[in-house]
Structures are given as structure tokens and as C-alpha cells.
Design goal:
globular; alpha+beta; single chain; 219 residues; 12 strands; 3-stranded mixed sheet
Length: 219
């Protein structure tokens, strides 16, 4: 069965129900971004799941790859090493910032991605927070520990966006142990499941769509 494709306003939502290889995802994004730039295709949010793998962004440090337990890919996105795998919802966003912002602003775009995650998590009773100097969205445990629940990594090509966000739903958190996630060793990672939320991809996807519309309507 192929991906579900929905058009919501000007945005196409592509939802894959089987794992997508990282090279296939990169190939799709490259082609779609070029088509968006030329005005030949709609903007797109692609919701998917990857098989277990690590990716290194443009700032990845070799020493942060502790153990190559899974395939390792070099990525053109910003950031350091991250893990993708079963139980993690990845949302790749291909959006024309020139068309959406009076003056294209990468920092504003990243803030909007953060806000999208924060509002989505709030629908499940989870308080997601930003932290200066720490990319991604964090939650504070009752004992004060701060753990990362969502990662952000973006690339901009001729003001069209690639890559996006990843939210931990119910992944095997031990898989993060092969890397120093995003170069941060002082804090752990968590998931909706680890926080006691029994939602799956369908519930998360249903929350992502309206919160996306809220955040990006004013772009």
C-alpha cells in the first residue's frame, strides 16, 4: 500500500505507513524542493518512519558517533548526530519561505517548527519547552531531569525548506546510546510512551495537522 496523500489548503500531506529508507527520503525531498522552487508542485509535509539509522548533520563531530549500531548517513541538514527508527514520527517539511514570509527568516522558521511541536505535545498533556543553546524540544521530569522528546534539523535551498522534525512516540530509547544525540551528553531522551501517553502515529498525526495550520497560518 502506498502513502496516503491529502491536500489541506495549499499544503499536501503525505503519510507513509511503512518504513522509508533514508536515501529514498532524500531523493524525494530533493526532487520536490526543486519542483516547489519552479512552481511545479505544492508544498509538502511528509509524515514517515525510518528503519533504525543514524544521521550526521553539518556540525556532527566524529567523536559523537560512539557505536555504529545501525547504518550511518551524512545529511545536508544542520545539526549534529541524531537517531531515527521505529516508533519515531518524522515530519519532513518542504515549504517556500519566500511565498510565506514577507522577508524570509530562518530563525523564525525554526521557532515555528518548535512551536508546532510544543502545541502538538500540549494536546497530549505534555509541556514541551525550548532551551537556549539546546536544539529541539525538552520536557522536565518530576525529579527535575530534562529530557529531549523531539529533534529539529533543517536545510534551506533557495528559500525552500528540507528536513524538519522528529517526535519520539514509542521508540526503543536504548538505540540513542550509539551517539551523543545532537552533541548533548548531559541530558537524556524520552518519548510519549515513557511519559505515560499511549498514543500512536494516527493520534499524533491527527494532532500535528491542526497545530501546523495554527502556527504557519500567519507566516
Amino acid at each position: 500500500m502506498g502513502p496516503i496523500v491529502l491536500s489541506i489548503g495549499a499544503m499536501e500531506w503525505k503519510i507513509s505507513d511503512t518504513p522509508v529508507s533514508y536515501p529514498d527520503a532524500l531523493e524525494f525531498m530533493d526532487a520536490r524542493v526543486e519542483a516547489i522552487y519552479k512552481g511545479d508542485a505544492q508544498e509538502c509535509v511528509w509524515l514517515l518512519e525510518h528503519p533504525p539509522l543514524y544521521t550526521g548533520g553539518t556540525s556532527a563531530k566524529p567523536d559523537d558517533l560512539l557505536e555504529a549500531r545501525f547504518p550511518v548517513y551524512t545529511s545536508g541538514r544542520g545539526g549534529e548526530y541524531t537517531y531515527h527508527g521505529p516508533g519515531q514520527r518524522v515530519a519532513y517539511v518542504m515549504m517556500n519561505l519566500r511565498a510565506r514570509q514577507d522577508k524570509p527568516d530562518v530563525k523564525k522558521y525554526v521557532w515555528q517548527l518548535e512551536e508546532w511541536i510544543i502545541r502538538t505535545l500540549a494536546t497530549f498533556g505534555i509541556t514541551g519547552e525550548r532551551r537556549d543553546g539546546r536544539v529541539g524540544i525538552w520536557v522536565v521530569r518530576p525529579d527535575g531531569r530534562e529530557e529531549k522528546i523531539a529533534a529539529i534539523g533543517v536545510r534551506i535551498r533557495r528559500w525552500v525548506t528540507l528536513h524538519g522534525i522528529a517526535i519520539n512516540v514509542n521508540p526503543d530509547l536504548s538505540h540513542f546510546g550509539g551517539i551523543v544525540p545532537c552533541g548533548i551528553s548531559d541530558h537524556g531522551v524520552t518519548s510519549l510512551s515513557a511519559l505515560g501517553v499511549r498514543a500512536g502515529f494516527a493520534e499524533l498525526d491527527a494532532a500535528l495537522q491542526p497545530s501546523f495550520a495554527e502556527v504557519f497560518a500567519s507566516s
